[in-house]
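Weekly structure sync - notes
Attendees: PM, LS, DV (DV joined late)
Agenda: review two folding runs queued last week.

Item 1: First target. Sequence and structure tokens pasted below for the record.
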Amino acid sequence: MQVILKQEIEAYVESHRQEMLDLWRDITNFQGHTEDLDALKNVVDRFKAEFEAAGLTCKLLPQGNKTQDYLVGEWGSENPGKPILFSGHYDTIMKPGTYPDNPFKIEGGKAFGPGVLDMRGGIIISLYVIKALIACGYNASPLRICYVSDEESCHEFNDKAGEVIMDSAKGCICAFNMETGRVNNDLCIGRSARVGFDVTVTGVATHAGNDFAGGRNAVAEMCHKVLEFEALTNLAVGSTVNCGVIHGGTVANAIPGKCELNIDMRFLKQSELEKTVAAAEEICKKTFIDGTHTQYKYRVAMPAFETIPGIMELYTLANDVAKAYGYDEAGKIVLGGVSDASYLTMAGVPTICSFGVRGEDNHTIKEYAVVESLFERTKWLAALCLNLGEFKY
């Protein structure tokens, strides 16, 4: 492998360290829970301005009154190669009031704050990869971005999210989903699908002493169903069904007339999702206690990020580049948490997820990112883009 523009890329990143940190601070301090549309407007407007200043032509795509705009853009549409896509989300998981104003801080080489890891740092990496490539005269492929505002809610209020992401991925040679980087430097090559499945059983509420026989116990009916739902788990193929939350009844001396169950299902294969969901629906249609009635609905659903052809070759090339350029090589992992990388592979585009800053404890108040990884990953990903001419599968 020929080491291309190593000194130039590294010099660019090193000369912009403070600028990158300042942007990271500003963006993190905006906060921006999925449903905090005003805060998210500040975030997306700032990112749009930054990417446009870098030379991209950008658009904001409205997504309805419960979801903030999506940010898409492209640079170098005249370049001869297939586009490279950088993707992810700019919303955060923590609700307003969780953090004080201006929560970003750096202590002991770690950055703290809402979304500092998941995943504002990754978006900043993609911005400076693009800026570094342009500064070094890159002209091989168009460079695209697609950043959405509601991934943390699994696009609960937007049934068109997948279409937008897949449309951005069309024709791309590969994609880098700039999600949470693993603290041990692993790269994510696959993720589970997730389905949120809510079940409600309605029975007949009566006094347990005066009219036991007249009651129809909704909790008992649900218990029969829970055992059958749980039996759908198949660890051999990476499918899990977890009956996580159940509510039913009012007092011990009354036959419960209603019971509600929240189920989390996860699947490594989209085919297993479809098969298991169909089986869960059949369980709902069964009646164990006459006089009870069962309804179900899907709360959220995210498809599987399957390890399609090309992903392992892209992962191998990423490590070949790391070795040639003197960077740390990465392990690989398949994760149970979902991401929008699933839609990229559904579009047939080889994708590596978790190329963002490295850290831990996302989705908690302890979330942190390793500061130096902001610069390390920018250099590595820029070098990988320079060497995509060797990507064959």
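Item 2: Second target, run right after the first with the same settings.
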Amino acid sequence: MTDSEVIVIGGGIAGASTAYHLAEHGRGVTLLERGEIASEASGVNAGGIGALGWGHVPNLESYLTMGSLQIFRSLQIELGYDIEFRASGALQAIQTARQYEYSRDNVLSLKSHGYTAELLTVNEARGIEPELNPELLGAVHFPLRGQADPRKATRAFASAAADRGAQVLTGREVTGITRLGDGTYRVACSDEAYTASKLVLAAGAWCGPLGKMLGLRIPVIPVRGQMWATEPLPPRVFHSISAAESPLHWSASPGNDADTPPELTHIRGRRVTRHLYGRQTRDGEIIFGGDREMAGYDTRVDESGIEVNFGHTTEILPLLSGLSISRTWAGLMPFSLDGRPIIGKIPQMDELYIVSGLASSGFGRGPMAGKLIADYVHTGHRPPSLAECDPARCVTMLG
């Protein structure tokens, strides 16, 4: 049996960041990952980093997005890890009159709260992204947003944690969690057992099954997202690209109920909206995705969804209409039932923490989420920004 001060379960972006920041604090930490680092959602997403600024009154989203942007920048520029970080900015394409009205009002609201966004005409947008369809009605420009390689970035956090003394153990599938009489946690894996006085659940869409091992109901639902890529091309797309269709739809009809998280593209097997995001990577691939569907833990690609997403992308970037898809893949995102992150101390047990429910933007918010939970574990005091995502609101004992 191996003893540590803190065990972190999950080698995605949030877990790796948690381990790194705990090690920075001088804590003895062991990270357990059942596969390889970044082998699940944190390694197969588009690599977008959303940020709008701190705003006049910074809230949780401000901390998660702007804080993560700063951490990504530091990881590459100050610590020297090549994660392909770039402060590229992002554009959200506007295709219809209703989308234009929504985007105009959204930009005005964001700016009134101190965030950074601009409504551009199509000609202004094409001035910075020439391949955009000239038939668009405009685009919203988010100049603070960035991008990075998700696999490289997640593995860099794990490497940085190991460099600071953390044990980073892969191929350790958790088979049981027990709280011992002295208050420590015993985490059984296929090879051996690990014990620690503090435990952090950072396993993304798998936090629900881990919670059951402790007699807890953690309302995190796996939601399947999928992506596709072209063959490498010379530089043609310079920003992260999205579309206004799904934000407009969700603003009026988020679609959640007692068993369904908000902001999905499919509800009970029926498509309700198209969702789109993507970019061109440094090696030249143009990668896009967008579907959000409850399919259990099934990671098989739905080719019809890929076809819809590809068609939507060609409407925004006509250059793609002459290209073909070279590969497709899918992953599982951790959506909470109320749509808000679950970050903090689980009140039913001492020294039990969670960082999950980061939904489709886990990569872009995970670094700061990991730092906030690491600070909480280290000091014993909850950072004020975590009041919005307290697990006490939703984690319950199993009946």
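Discussion on item 2: The chain has nine helices and 22 strands.
Action: LS to circulate a short write-up before next sync.
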